[in-house]
TrEMBL record, chains A, B:
Entry's family note: Belongs to the isocitrate and isopropylmalate dehydrogenases family.
Signal peptide bounds: none
Source taxon at top rank: Archaea
Keywords, sorted A to Z: Oxidoreductase
Biological processes annotated in GO: isocitrate metabolic process; tricarboxylic acid cycle
Domain Isopropylmalate dehydrogenase-like: 4-322
High-level lineage: Archaea, Methanobacteriati, Methanobacteriota, Stenosarchaea group, Halobacteria
A molecular function GO annotation: isocitrate dehydrogenase (NAD+) activity
Protein name: 3-isopropylmalate dehydrogenase
PANTHER family: DECARBOXYLATING DEHYDROGENASES-ISOCITRATE, ISOPROPYLMALATE, TARTRATE, ISOCITRATE DEHYDROGENASE [NAD] SUBUNIT ALPHA, MITOCHONDRIAL
Organism (species): Natronorubrum thiooxidans
Length: 326, 326
């Protein structure tokens, strides 16, 4: 069976790390068909559209999508692409790697971020010269879908339930609905949960990240708190993410376009390659996914390393080393 | 001239650290008249009201208010009290103290948090069984008032402008209005600003807190990011805050009620005492405020210390030591 993979490198180092990820995928004994498409600042400059219709359609029909990075146009690209693949959950692991400088090396978290609504539903108005509004939307159905996913996600020996993070003491109706629905679903599944306010989470994750494991939260909370966790593990450089829907999914490194080093062939491909491992796992190839992750971890530990990790290897050197270790 | 100070100890260790703060104030050569009032879980249990009308009225008429902490009812108490004093800005310094364990000892930040609107404006609805909404409100006038305050705040040798933190790539109209208004006011005042997205701020403040100084942001962003900074400096225990309006203001330690140690007389009064120093400064007594801050810093460094800092002194011991050093 051939898996059609949409490949959208985007801007900056997206152009370098995305091919690295597809090189790794090609080294596996799985049948992929890669179809490349444009998105981002460069195509906007050329055509006026940051996300051409064909790219949206491709992501909406491919089995899975690999995305690189976009610059100024990031929101115009990534938000519609999440919608194209019907993603309801954004999976954001944040774990420190051995040998990599981290503020909190004991951090090992996974954020399951609601991926369709909250402030991202984005109904905004300028009511008067003085007053603007944004309607934040929280539905029981989206909260339930996320919670069901979370319950399945933690149904392994590795996890004991999850933590619900919210701000229901202020957003009583909306985050209240989120919290109550997620807790109710967890109850139905027999999954243990605890809950923490999002501001308190921000303090406690710095003081003692080991008290948390899987975190289930609304869209913007997930955006900010997973980036906080990225800071604790030493930066966005190594973090992968998955935007998962019922029929398809999109995988992207959490880092941006890194304009300062773009074009030099020295970008660290690790996050893109780990994102590709998440893609492989999503398609059902657990062993191959584990093999990629182990090869990346060994390479992070033993080298070669790119400049961001104190080495002088090229993107290609690191990619070749990962493939060698598969 | 006598300054009428509303004193609202609230629940838990609020009952212990607030008297410590008034003891310090009484040791100054300033004429205070303290008027005590109830708020919080205990008064709710007794009367059904977490914030009795008299308490609100007192805060709304006193020259300044000292608040301790509230438990479960925190939001029902503190949000109306901020309104009672007409507070438009929440000032939250987050600085690491010498000799105190911190994740990032080089952290020295001040958050100027918008204190009236954003998601806290709180218009919520349950539109259908499935759908709930919250209307987030951002006004040009509140953004302008905050920005003018911020421009005055940084008008000292200590500061070079401020950083505007927002999420205008997603909340384009509302956070766009916030960002544009604040930047415009800063321009009028000749104050330098830069801007960072709130998720990127969360990463970067962990990696390198020294790149930031004064941060100006919307209400919820300030709530979460100042608590993140609290984590970086070692917890909420030592952090003061001020809710400032044009005619009056309310001062509170950022910590909570600490039910685990409440009633034992061992709570650390430092945050409440530093909050009292902010009150004294607000009333125009800069030298006295500096004296309190120096006395607290010396006590933190040389002791006596409460249990949270590894010592075995009581709240009273620490308070007496601060007063001795005035
Ligand atoms: C680019 C932006 C719209 C996006 C988001 O806010 O979700 C980004 O920060 C992310 O987390 O992938
Ligand atoms: C208690 C709560 C309503 C409050 C807030 O969200 O502002 C608290 O977290 C704070 O920061 O003072």
């Amino acid at each position: 069976m051939t898996h059609e993979i949409a490949v959208i490198p985007g801007d900056g180092i997206g152009q370098e790390v995305t091919p690295a990820a597809t090189d790794v995928l090609e080294a596996l004994d799985i049948d992929f068909e890669f179809v490349e498409a444009d998105a981002g600042d460069a195509v906007k400059e050329a055509t006026g559209e940051a996300l051409p219709e064909e790219t949206y359609e491709l992501a909406a029909s491919a089995d899975a999508t690999l995305f690189g990075a976009a610059g100024e146009t990031a929101a115009d690209v990534i938000l519609p692409l999440r919608d194209a693949v019907g993603s309801f959950v954004n999976i954001r692991p944040a774990k420190a790697y051995p040998g990599i400088d981290a503020v909190r090396p004991e951090t090992d978290l996974v954020f399951l971020r609601e991926n369709t609504e909250g402030v991202y539903a984005g109904h905004e108005d300028r009511l008067t010269e003085d007053v603007s509004t944004l309607t934040r939307v929280v539905t029981e159905s989206a909260s339930r879908e996320l919670a069901e996913f979370a319950c399945d996600y933690v149904d392994t020996d590795e996890h004991d339930g999850f933590t619900i993070v919210h701000k229901a003491n202020v957003m009583r109706e909306t985050d209240g609905l989120f919290r109550d629905t997620v807790a109710e679903v967890a109850d139905e599944y027999g999954v243990e949960t605890d809950e923490v306010l999002m501001d308190a989470f921000a303090t406690h994750v710095c003081l003692d990240p080991e008290q948390f494991d899987v975190v289930v939260c609304p869209n913007l909370a997930g955006d900010v708190l997973s980036d906080l966790a990225a800071g604790l593990v030493g930066g966005l450089g190594l973090l992968p993410s998955a935007n998962v829907g019922t029929e398809r999914a999109l995988f992207e490194p959490v880092h941006g376009t890194a304009p300062d080093i773009a074009g030099e062939g020295v970008a660290n491909p690790a996050a893109a390659i780990i994102s590709a491992a998440m893609l492989v796992e999503y398609l059902g190839y657990d062993e191959e996914a584990a093999a990629i992750n182990e090869a990346v971890e060994a390479t992070l530990e033993e080298g070669p390393r790119t400049a961001d990790l104190g080495g002088d290897a090229s993107t290609e050197d690191v990619t070749a080393a990962v493939i060698d270790r598969l």
